[in-house]
Amino acid sequence: MQAPGPGDALLVVDVQNDFLPGGALGIRGGDAIVGPINRLLAAWRARGLPVFLSRDWHPDGHCSFAAQGGPWPVHCVAGTRGAEFAAPLSIAADDLVISKATRVDKDAYSALDGTPLAEALRARGVKRLFIAGLATDYCVRATGRDARAAGLDVVVLKDAVCAVDVQPGDGDRALDELAAEGCELSTTGATLREMEAPA
Ligand code: VGL
Ligand code: ZN
């Protein structure tokens, strides 16, 4: 991996209360990625590199909810505690927050689907996107694919993502698919070592 520097951004996908253990759509092990993500955030900020935080931000009665015939329990309703970023995540005032799946009649797993993210990345000259967060088999997967399709280089941080695994192995399959689409799979440790290595 080329050491992260100008042209690189970090996208933290959907690290929200409802996706952590105890939340409405709690992901087993989801809390274990917050530490690695906070270390990445600290390194990113120390170098003045851009940070984006996406959030699942559904209206009441969203089409993805079971009562509407969707696959999921009610989760990440805009403005609720469940939709807030997890408290241990070290957010900064100049992070860019991207709300997604905000329309009642349309679900959107990708942080690039129906959001200003692509434009914001372009405006900042981002060429390579580092992706961490939740869930590997849904929003991380869809976001990684869309980022590749948009012509970005993508690095997915395997230890800083976690899967719902509705079917066992969904998360591993998602990582395989992302790799097949040209995403680099790396780790927090390898990324931080590159950033700390003498130039
Ligand atoms: C997600 C399921 C439903 C995600 C969002 O952020 O991966 N998964 N809504
Ligand atoms: Zn959702």
Brief characterization of the structure:
This protein is of the alpha/beta class. The protein is 27% helix and 19% strand.
Explain how this protein is built.
The two termini are 14 Å apart. The chain is of the alpha/beta class and 199 residues long. Helix content is 27%, strand content 19%. Strands 3-2-1-4-5-6 form a 6-stranded parallel β-sheet, with helices on both faces. The model has no long low-confidence stretch (mean pLDDT 97). It binds pyrazine-2-carboxylic acid and zinc ion (ZN). Zinc ion is lined by residues 56, 58, 64, 75-76, 101.
The set of bound ligands, ions and cofactors reads:
pyrazine-2-carboxylic acid, zinc ion
* SS content category: alpha/beta
Write down the secondary-structure element order: EHEEHEHEHEH
Q: What is the number of E strands?
A: 6
The total of helices stands at 5
Low-confidence stretches: none
Q: How helix-rich are the residues, as a percent range? A: 25-40%
How many angstroms separate the termini?
14 Å
Shape: globular
Main sheet: strands, sense, barrel: 6 strands, parallel
Question: What characteristics describe this protein?
Answer:
binds pyrazine-2-carboxylic acid, 6-stranded parallel beta sheet, single chain, alpha/beta, 6 strands, 199 residues
Task: Provide the fold topology.
Layout: E1 8-13, H1 34-46, E2 51-56, E3 96-100, H2 117-123, E4 128-134, H3 136-149, E5 153-162, H4 170-180, E6 184-186, H5 188-196
Parallel strand pairs: 1-2, 1-4, 2-3, 4-5, 5-6
Helix pairs in contact: 1-5, 3-4
This protein binds pyrazine-2-carboxylic acid and zinc ion.
The site of pyrazine-2-carboxylic acid has 9 residues, from helix 3.
